[in-house]
Every structure is written in C-alpha cells, then in structure tokens.
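pinned: reference chain
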Amino acid sequence: MSLNHEFFLLPNDFQISDRIDWYYHNRNTWKNKVEIPDDIILYIFDILNWIPTFNPESKVAGHGLNYYGVTFIHKEGVEKLLKILGKWCELILEAPDIINFKGPTVWREEENGDTFWEETRIKIAKRVYLNEIEGLMKFAEQALINEQYIMHYGI
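pinned: its structure tokens
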C-alpha cells in the first residue's frame, strides 16, 4: 500500500481549529480532494519548501509542507505552488518515458545473516508522474479562481 499526501480545497471561512475533527469526518467523502503518492512528494520535497505556508500546530507562518501533519496553503503559497509545479512539469517533459529516481535507503537483512544498507530506486512512467503533478496544479488553479485555500495532510 502506497502512502499518500492529501490536499483538500477549503473555503476561506474554514476554522483552522476544527481541522482534526473535520479531517476525520470528511477525509473519505470530501469531493475537492487530490491525493499525491509519497514517492512523488519526496522527490520534490526540497523544492516545495519554497512555498509560503502556515503551520497550525506551531501557529507560525513559514515555508514548506509538514511531512507528517497538517499545513495550510493560502493565496500567496498557492500562486508559488503553481509556478513551481509548472516549471517542474517542463523539466519532467525532458525525462525518459520511465523515470528512475532515488528512493529511500533501507536496512536489509539476508537469510544468511548478512546485513547492509541498500539504496532503493523508484520507477514511474513519465505520463503517470505528469498526471499527478498536473492534477495538483488544476487543484491549485481552482483554489485561486474560487479564492479558497488548500489544506495539506501529510502521511
């Protein structure tokens, strides 16, 4: 089972203090939702740190997504997200049909007792990768048009 990051389009009058209850009651039924696989988020995570965001746990405005928690992306952040993802799509268009990128380093234990660190590789079709990123871009465009914001819920 793949881990996913969830993005929800929310109205501007949404009460941030209600985020946890809202999430548990609406996460599976909310229609304005996009899920992006963790592998894709991890690959661009450093670049996503350029996006202005709000951390509701610390109540501090900052940059980037909370990998394990909730992050809110308001208008300025949504605009930056669109620019970054647009440029990223242009770059991915230059990739081969199957993108092969570095995954996590994991500890392996063999049946014979050998143990070692292994650098994993993740393969994904370029078209699938672009579809995921473009889906998030359309979502962000909708947020700008409707003057809404995005709640990101990490893994």
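why pinned: The chain has a mean pLDDT of 93. Residues 18 and 133 are 28 Å apart (CA to CA).
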